[in-house]
Design a protein that fits this description.
15% helix, alpha+beta, Jelly Rolls, 162 residues, single chain, 5-stranded antiparallel beta sheet
Length: 162
């Protein structure tokens, strides 16, 4: 039995805070070849995940907010926001399922945020994500300004000043 408790969330969050990317995964699946990928995704505000979709091979992705606040954004193929939601267990907004072939990103709005993520497997770094050509790459000097503009455009705010 795997326990998903405050101790595990705190440890994964501590690793995210120490990471240059400001996020850390804790994998429950044993191997990348598993047909269901399951993991904790601890994220800090301004950790940028370039919008992407899972296509060829097509994969669904599910996020549940265990702690904190997570902005989930869905885009059309040109980069326009189609829909967004803030997941926050304190207000009863728990999770979303992103269909295959759908551009999306997730953003931590609060320090200590942790999502439980499920995705169809297997995982292969070669073809796992199809990155949006209209969004800056992770690590680009344009990434954080893009992220801030995206957040502001949804009318969402960080819990604390960033």
């Amino acid at each position: 039995m795997i326990h998903i408790d405050k101790t595990l969330l705190d440890a994964t969050t501590a690793e995210a805070k120490a990471s240059a990317r400001c996020r850390k995964n804790y994998n429950f699946h044993k191997e990348y070849s598993d047909t269901l990928q399951r993991l904790l995704n601890a994220m800090e505000p301004l950790s940028y995940i370039q919008p992407h979709k899972h296509e060829d091979p097509d994969k669904r992705e599910v996020f549940f907010a265990l702690r904190g606040r997570i902005l989930v954004v869905e885009f059309d193929n040109e980069g326009n926001v189609v829909e967004h939601i803030v997941l926050d267990p304190a207000i009863g907004a728990y999770g979303v399922e992103i269909p295959e072939k759908t551009f999306h990103t997730i953003v931590s709005l609060e320090s200590g945020t942790v999502a439980y993520e499920f995705k169809d497997g297997p995982y292969s770094p070669v073809d796992d994500k199809n990155f949006a050509p209209w969004a800056p790459a992770e690590g680009s000097p344009k990434a954080v300004p893009y992220l801030k503009k995206l957040i502001a455009g949804t009318g969402t705010t960080f819990t604390s000043n960033i």
